[in-house]
Amino acid sequence: MTLFTIEVAGRPLLVFPEKSTEAAEELANNSIGPDLQDFEEDGEPLWDGEEPLTVRAANEQESALWDQGLAEAKSSGDSADFDPDSYAVLLVEVDAEDGDEEDEA
Hints:
Elements: E1 2-8, E2 11-18, H1 21-36, E3 40-41, E4 44-45, E5 53-57, H2 60-76, E6 89-90
Antiparallel strand pairs: 1-2, 1-5, 2-6, 3-4
């Protein structure tokens, strides 16, 4: 598997593995792209749904971040059911979901 990076307006957002550039582009446009609209940074979606998504080979630094994230995920979960071929790493810090914080009475 090769690692690919999705960019929006020249800004790298996510690294993921795929077999080929064509498969990575298809996955980015049909699955990952729409999911990027659900993640927010500073109250704004990572992707507005209109700006073109660019898929390119991940650079050395992005690949290292993916490796690090994969190692952390494997060590913190049930590695028997873990599939590294479907693992992705966000390269930006996203806002916490509203439901993550509970009100104290």
